[in-house]
Amino acid sequence: MNKSTLGDKMLVAGPCSAESLDQLLSTAKAIVTNYPHAIFRAGVWKPRTRPGTFEGIGEEALEWLLEVRKQTGMKVITEAANVKQLELCLKAGMDAIWIGARTTVNPFLVQELADALKGTSLTVMVKNPIHPDISLWSGAIERMQAAVNSEIIAVHRGFHSFETSEFRNHPRWQVHFEMKSYLPDLKMICDISHIAGARPLLQIVAQEALDLGYDGLMIETHIHPEEALSDSQQQITPTRLHELIQQLETRLPSPVDAMSIAQLKNWRDEIDRLNNELLILLKERLQYSTLIGELKKENHVSIFQPERWKTILEEMNKRGEELNINDGFIRNLFIQIHDESVRIQAEIINREEKNFLNL
Ligand code: PEP
Ligand code: MN
C-alpha cells in the first residue's frame, strides 16, 4: 500500500467521463503508479442537467475501461442509471457500478436495478440522493444489499441546497452518523469532487472526510482537467491527486497535553453558556413574531412583507460585515429565523380561520 495518510482506505479515482481510450489509459497509468489498489472510475453515460452538452461516449467506452484493467490491473467502475446500461456493464464484465444521485431518488428505478443485479457479485456504490432524504438513501442501499452477494458502499457526494454555500453540493457531515445508526456495518466513502465543485476546496473536504473516519475517497482525476468535457472545474491531475493525498493529516480526536485539555474545557464552557443565551434571545424574538401574527390577523395584513424582509437582510448583512462575520452564514441564519416567524404567524392565522369556519 502507498505511504500516504490514506493508509488502507479505499481510493476511487479517474475522470468524470470517459472521453477517449488515450485519456483513460494515460490517467489510469499515472494513478496506478502511486495507488496500485485504487479503483478506476469513468462515467460512460453522463446525466447532464441540460441537453446539448456531452452525454458520454456510451457502450464503446466500456471496452476502453476493460483495456485500462488489462493494462494496469485496476478494478473498473462506471455509473449505471437504468437496466439497459446495467446489462451492458454485466455483459462487459465490469468489477463495480455506482448508482448516481439522480437515480437514488427513484425507488422504482433502484428496485429495477436491484432485480437486474440479483445473484451477481458486482461491488455496488450508492450515491446519496440529490436532496437530503436519508431514508431514501438507506432504502436504496437495503434494496441493493438484498439483491447482491457483494459489498455495498455508500458514497456521500453532498446535497443540493437552497442555502448559500461555497460548495457545489453541500456536505452534511452528520449523515455519516445517521447512516451508521441505520446500517452500522456500512462502508462509506466521500466523493469530494462533487461536494467541492472547484479544485481549491478539495483539500479541506478530503481532510474533513478523513477526520470523520470515512472508509475512503472518490476523487475525479483527469490527465488534462482544463480540457475535460464535463466537470472540468473540479477535476485534478494524477500528480495533484498524489499531492492532495500526501498533504492529508492524521488528526487526533482530542488534544493530549493537560494545558490544552484545560483550555479546551474552558472555551467549551463559554460556548455552552453563549448557546444558552442565544436560545433565550431566540425565544424572546419569536414571542414578538407571535404578537405580530395576532396583530396582522386582526388588521387583515398579509404575513409576508417582502420589503420588510429585504430591509432586515440588508441591515443584518451590513452589521455582519462590520463584525467580520461570514455573509453567507448571516444570510442562512436569518432565512431560518424568518422562516420560523412566518411558520408561527401562518399557524396563528390558520387556527383562527378554522374557528371562523366552525371546524
Ligand atoms: C459522477 O460521479 O460523475 C456523477 C454524475 O455523480 P453524481 O451522481 O453524484 O452527480
Ligand atoms: Mn462528475
What does this structure look like?
- It is a single chain.
- Strand 1, helix 1 (21-34) and strand 2 (39-41) form a beta-alpha-beta unit.
- An eight-stranded parallel β-barrel has the order 1-2-3-4-5-6-7-8, surrounded by five helices.
- The chain is of the alpha/beta class and 359 residues long.
- The longest helix has 41 residues, at 258-298.
- The N and C termini lie far apart (69 Å).
- The model has no long low-confidence stretch (mean pLDDT 93).
- Helix 1 packs parallel to helix 2 (60-72).
- It has helices at residues 21-34, 60-72, 83-92, 101-104, 107-117, 134-147, 175-182, 192-196, 202-211, 238-246, 258-298, 306-322, 327-356, and strands spanning 10-14, 39-41, 75-79, 96-99, 123-127, 152-156, 187-191, 216-220.
- The chain is globular.
- Helices cover 52% and strands 10% of the residues.
- The structure holds phosphoenolpyruvate and manganese (II) ion (MN).
Q: What layout of secondary structure does this protein have?
A:
Blueprint: E1 10-14, H1 21-34, E2 39-41, H2 60-72, E3 75-79, H3 83-92, E4 96-99, H4 101-104, H5 107-117, E5 123-127, H6 134-147, E6 152-156, H7 175-182, E7 187-191, H8 192-196, H9 202-211, E8 216-220, H10 238-246, H11 258-298, H12 306-322, H13 327-356
Parallel strand pairs: 1-2, 1-8, 2-3, 3-4, 4-5, 5-6, 6-7, 7-8
Helix pairs in contact: 1-2, 1-10, 5-6, 11-13, 12-13
Bound molecules: phosphoenolpyruvate (PEP) and manganese (II) ion.
Residues 16, 220, 230-231 line the site of manganese (II) ion.
